Amino acid sequence: MKRVGIITYHRANNFGAVLQCYALQEMLKRLDFNVKVIDYRQPFTELIYNPIRWDIMKKGLTNPRLLVGYLFKVFPILYKRTQVYNSFRSRFLQCSRPVKSGREMPQCFDVYLIGSDQMWSLHPTNNIIEPVYFGEFTVPKGSSIQGYAISSNIESLRTIGKEYLTGSVKRFKRLSFREETVRDEVYQMTDMHGEVVVDPTLLLNAEDWNRLTTYNLIGEPYLLTYFLSNNTDNEAFRTKVSVFAKQNNLKVVDMFDLAYSPIAFLNAIKYASVVFTTSFHATAFSIILKKKFYAFRSANGRDIRYINLLHNLGLDSCIVSTGDIGSLSLEDINYAHTDLLLDALRQHSIQYLKTL
């Protein structure tokens, strides 16, 4: 049985990061691989998701207001979030011993699988290249480094630069990407042409994910919002959202107010009457769970991640701009054609994993 070690952002207290890791692990187990998540503790990820922020407390020594705000408002939220995420990881992810650098990489795997998520983006690592995510570590003789559904953005790739990327891709036996735009940019920069595969969350179906869900936390029809960009996460736009909800007899519920854990995130989407979002994984799970949803164009350019997915699944009508909100409806989405397209992409991706 081939041993596979996953390297990804499983330590981020982020809904999509943890759930995509879980999905990749579960699919590899179904394909009869011996799987572990390599418990790599990326320094910046550990810093920003640690509820005990010594950097903030140090600044608070000369700014009592900052310190009080952190201790009584920020810390309790971060602590609760960390507890529920650690509980999910402990229960659902099969992790190796902690690894703090490439030099400590376990030498017991046949395949070191890097991906999915924003592995080649710079914003999750504070605009610093993380060598581990580009395969800069020693592996046993006969083992390989491979990539699955690696994502990034064009700005990050160009900042990383042609020279570093060209050297990096040579370490990989195979590479695949989540978006065609990323695949094409890497090809232009390195002459390495990878495949395009689906995000791991899309490898599992609604039945698989429903096994993790519990119950409706709201108890009445609601519009779920999950906005991550400035042009949607502002008071003026939220006023328009409230008007839309009132016209359709829905309560507005914000994901940040409702979901502290990955399972609560799934529940929030599953029981929503409609989802408004600028999140890739909220979009992906809306599709998986066959929800009414609208993915709003983002001002920060990161919308290409879900726009690419929606184009490939024939769901262009779900891509809207903030100015379109007055013309939106609650009509059901006909998922029949989408299911056929998604199944084809899913099977192609599963075949890629079978041949690790």
Task: Please tell me about this protein's structure.
The protein has helices at 15-30, 43-49, 54-60, 64-92, 154-160, 162-169, 180-190, 206-210, 235-247, 255-258, 262-270, 280-288, 304-312, 336-354, and strands at residues 3-7, 34-40, 95-99, 111-114, 144-147, 172-174, 176-177, 195-196, 222-226, 251-254, 274-277, 293-296, 319-320. The chain is α/β, with parallel strands linked by helices and 356 residues long. A six-stranded parallel beta sheet has the order 3-2-1-4-5-6, covered by helices on one side. The chain is globular.
- Estimate what percentage of residues fall within beta strands: 5-15%
Helix % is: 40-55%
Total beta strand runs: 13
Q: Count of helical segments?
A: 14
What does this entry show, briefly?
The chain has helices spanning 15-30, 43-49, 54-60, 64-92, 154-160, 162-169, 180-190, 206-210, 235-247, 255-258, 262-270, 280-288, 304-312, 336-354, and strands at 3-7, 34-40, 95-99, 111-114, 144-147, 172-174, 176-177, 195-196, 222-226, 251-254, 274-277, 293-296, 319-320. By secondary structure, the chain is α/β, with parallel strands linked by helices.
